[in-house]
Write a structure and sequence with these properties.
Layout lengths: L4 E4 L7 H7 L2 E2 L3 E3 L14 E3 L3 E3 L5 E3 L8 E5 L2 E2 L6 E10 L4 E9 L5 E10 L6 E10 L9 E8 L12 E9 L2 E8 L5 E10 L5 E5 L6 E8 L4 E12 L6 H14 L2 E2 L6 E6 L2 E6 L2 E2 L2 H19 L2 E3 L2 H16 L27 H13 L1 H13 L1 H10 L22 E3 L6 E3 L2 H4 L3 H16 L2 H22 L1 E3 L4 E3 L17 H24 L1 H10 L4 H13 L35 H5 L15 H7 L6 H11 L16 H7 L3 H12 L16 H15 L3 E3 L2 E3 L10 E8 L2 E8 L1
Parallel strand pairs: 17-21
Antiparallel strand pairs: 1-9, 2-3, 3-4, 5-6, 7-8, 7-13, 9-10, 10-11, 11-12, 12-19, 13-18, 14-15, 15-16, 16-19, 17-18, 20-23, 21-22, 24-31, 25-26, 27-28, 29-30, 31-32
Helix pairs in contact: 4-19, 5-6, 5-9, 5-19, 6-9, 6-10, 9-10, 9-11, 10-11, 11-12, 11-13, 17-18, 17-19, 18-19
Length: 751
């Protein structure tokens, strides 16, 4: 096993769509699914650009699948190379995670008996985020009946005939050429985002014929060449992409960028060697100038990935499968994270698929952001500024619901408005169901506030806290203070009619996670206000006036903090997930052994709510997110209650790996390892049968947390840090790097 490579040794059409997700490449600006250059029946090609949305009917808007830049069709003696035709006699596909490169090799015999070998290599440049590159080679195999040289045609295109499944978001504006560059200008149908893609396609081998073909929907470049047995033809495709979100003059910027790439790699023409250029019926012979930027771009790209892995790699010795898997999840976190753009965050499926339409959930803050906070604080900062940018919309949502402060949407895109669809078709039962999460799953507001606080504690970024963070904490605290209601019978402030993280149970009162996190939100907001008054009094005065933080308002905060209902047995420490949870019927899980779907899918949306079975960590997530607020006894009694009744296999991908942190603290190492691998392999093995929709990005973040905060036991203190390693069977070393208050720390633990 190569610990840096994800490999596919045979082509299995049944795994076509899940492998498209697994073999994605990207750089945070865009990501491209692992479809084949030549296409395949019912494939789902996809390239998604961070923050490029278009309107849809139900879920308001979705990331718009852009014209496919991968397309390269191959014809040999008039027969088209297709994996669903002819015979495959050799096959290998490899995702090189260390360098962010996808390679493929296919030995193929055509229906007519011609044997060729195709190799391709592609990357989305991490050094130059606007660039995608492909190197494509065809070799004529030795064969007795070959006869004359093979006529080889490589047909490269930009293809507008792709969409988000059946919905096409782009319309052609204009298409032309600039020298031997072809460019396509398209625009989203509703949001009017402009996109320019420029394409060059040339061969390293002279004595070929190149033809430029204009088309409003599929501009293309064809290269023709004859190959003798044993000869190889290699072509390089470079594509540059810019949108109107990047620059005003999209076309000129893209063309200038592409020409610069080509000019910087040009070398003198080879004497006596020529190629033929055919453009709109005009044929001319040109000296064979060597303009092949692929190698230069590749080296710069490799260096960028090398720099990334120097900070990001987690080394596990003694367990090759775990080592490979943890790297894969770290790789996936990077390819969907915008590196210097705070206008958009990371969606639940990253940029690798159409699931959840590119919407942003609390998945980012609770599951993914800790990785960036500890390892790439500059990216974490941008992800939090995204939430700061959405404060006006969060305030508008709170106001529309009759509350003060800022209430963040359950699903968001660019403007911060609620984008949760009102109804969906249930993926397991097929029934049309109302989606209540946008109205009732309100704990995201506290999750965002907590991550602001965590970022500040880890990084010591006082400038961020002064300019952005404190305002988020104060605005969200005010929402919680107004969202609570005083119950004179219980003498507590209560939060009724919510959906907790569990999500199997709706319209519940006093969800423990929601109420406790609301109290924590208020507590850290008060602390941040005191800090601001001491360290930036002018800013504190400004926010006090802006948010009307008068004494009466702040007094209510303190009162809510002191008297909010937390459903917990003070003697045992056991939380009740919500009021009445312990009165629900226990579910006999033995009756459903061998199931292949969730309990909600088996029982139905309504019936599952009558049982003590939960979709994902709820109380246990509280004990993990606020880890240092609880003692061993509290963690143990709640683990014993809730871990056995959580649907770890088919409930949600979010929390199996998150359970590792708590399991390690309770010294349940075998269980921790089992949960770790459930998370680490969820996409590599398509364990839930839904990887075709895109990567489980939150799970990827949870895997990093499991390794570092779980098995390594990393905790930051005022004086530095501590580790409490727990060693699964076979593990002998766990090494990683992180940042604490601007200082990089290298930690190397050995058993």
């Amino acid at each position: 096993m190569n610990l840096w490579h994800i490999e596919e040794r045979t082509f299995n059409p049944k795994k076509l769509h899940s492998c498209e997700t697994v073999f994605s490449i990207g750089n945070g600006y865009f990501a491209t699914r692992g479809t084949f250059e030549e296409g395949y029946p019912k494939a789902t090609p996809g390239t998604l650009l961070a923050g490029v949305f278009d309107k849809i009917a139900i879920a308001k808007e979705e990331l718009a699948n852009v014209p496919d830049w991968l397309t390269i069709k191959l014809f040999v003696n008039g027969e088209r190379f297709r994996l669903d035709h002819g015979k495959i006699f050799d096959y290998q596909r490899t995702l090189d995670m260390q360098h962010g490169i996808l390679r493929r090799m296919v030995g193929w015999e055509s229906p007519g008996g011609i044997r060729i070998r195709i190799t391709s290599e592609r990357f989305a440049s991490l050094a130059d985020e606007h660039v995608g590159a492909i190197r494509y080679s065809v070799t004529a195999e030795e064969q007795p009946e070959m006869g004359e040289k093979l006529d080889v045609l490589l047909w490269s295109a930009l293809d507008m005939a792709v969409g988000n499944h059946d919905l096409l978001h782009w319309e052609s504006v204009e298409q032309r050429r600039d020298g031997e560059l072809l460019w396509l200008h398209s625009q989203t149908r509703h949001s009017s985002v402009k996109l320019v893609q420029t394409m060059s396609f040339t061969s390293k081998d002279c004595q070929f014929q190149k033809e430029l073909i204009r088309s409003d929907t599929s501009p293309s470049i064809r290269i023709y060449k004859k190959l003798a047995a044993g000869e190889t033809m290699t072509a390089e495709k470079i594509v540059v992409m810019y949108t109107s979100r990047d620059v005003e003059d999209v076309l000129q910027t893209a063309l200038d960028h592409h020409h610069h790439i080509l000019q910087s790699s040009a070398s003198p023409a080879e004497p006596g060697k020529y190629y033929t250029l055919l453009v709109e019926g005009t044929r001319r012979t040109n000296p064979c100038v060597q303009v092949h930027p692929y190698e230069t771009l590749l080296e710069e790209h490799k260096k960028a990935w090398q720099n990334y892995w120097q900070d990001s790699d987690v080394i596990i010795e003694g367990d090759d499968k775990a080592q490979q898997a943890v790297r894969y999840n770290i790789y996936q976190l990077r390819i969907s994270a915008p590196s210097h753009d705070s206008r958009y965050s990371i969606a639940a499926k990253g940029l690798t698929g159409f699931g959840y339409r590119g919407h942003v959930f609390h998945d980012t803050e609770i599951f993914m952001l800790p990785y960036f906070t500890y390892v790439h604080p500059d990216i974490a900062r941008n992800l939090l500024i995204y939430r700061y940018r959405l404060l006006p919309a969060a305030r508008a949502k709170a106001n529309s619901n009759g509350y003060d402060g800022a209430q963040y949407p359950w699903e968001s895109t660019l403007d911060g408005k609620e984008t949760t669809p009102p109804a969906i078709v249930h993926p397991e039962t097929g029934e049309l169901i109302a989606v209540l999460n946008g109205n009732l799953e309100i704990h995201i507001t506290a999750s965002i506030a907590h991550t602001v606080w965590q970022y500040w504690q880890v990084t010591g970024d006082n400038e961020f806290m002064r300019e952005f963070g404190t305002e988020i904490l104060l605005s969200t605290a005010e929402f919680w203070a107004s969202r609570t209601e005083w119950n004179p019978e219980s003498s507590y402030y209560e939060i009724d009619n919510v959906i907790g993280p569990d999500e199997y149970h709706e319209h519940v009162n006093n969800n423990a996670y929601t109420n406790y996190m609301a109290r924590w939100n208020i507590q850290i907001a008060i602390h941040a206000l005191h800090w601001l008054r001491s360290n930036a009094p002018d800013k504190a005065k400004e926010l006090t006036q802006q948010l009307d933080l008068n004494e009466k308002r702040l007094a209510r905060w303190h009162d809510v903090k002191a008297h909010i209902r937390i459903p917990q047995d003070k003697r045992t420490g056991l939380f009740e997930q919500f009021d009445g949870f312990f009165q629900l019927e226990p579910l006999d899980q033995e009756k459903y052994k061998g199931r292949t779907t969730s309990y909600q899918g088996i029982l139905g949306m309504k019936v599952v709510q009558y049982y003590q079975i939960i979709k994902q960590a709820d109380v246990l997530m509280l004990l993990t997110v606020l880890d240092q607020q609880f003692d061993f006894k509290t963690k143990k009694v709640n683990w014993d209650c809730y871990f056995p009744i959580t649907d770890h296999d088919y409930g949600s991908s979010l929390t199996p790996a998150l359970h590792v942190i708590l399991a390690c603290e309770l010294d349940l190492v075998d269980t921790a390892y089992q949960m770790f691998m459930k998370g680490a392999l969820v996409d590599l093995e398509d364990q839930r049968g839904n990887s075709d929709e895109g990567i489980h990005a939150a799970c990827a973040g949870a895997v990093w947390q499991a390794a570092i905060l779980g098995f390594a036991g990393l905790r930051f203190t005022e004086d530095g840090y501590t580790t409490t390693p727990r060693w699964p069977d076979g593990w002998t070393r766990l090494a990683f790097t992180c940042f604490q208050r601007g200082k990089q720390i290298s930690i190397d633990l050995r058993k």
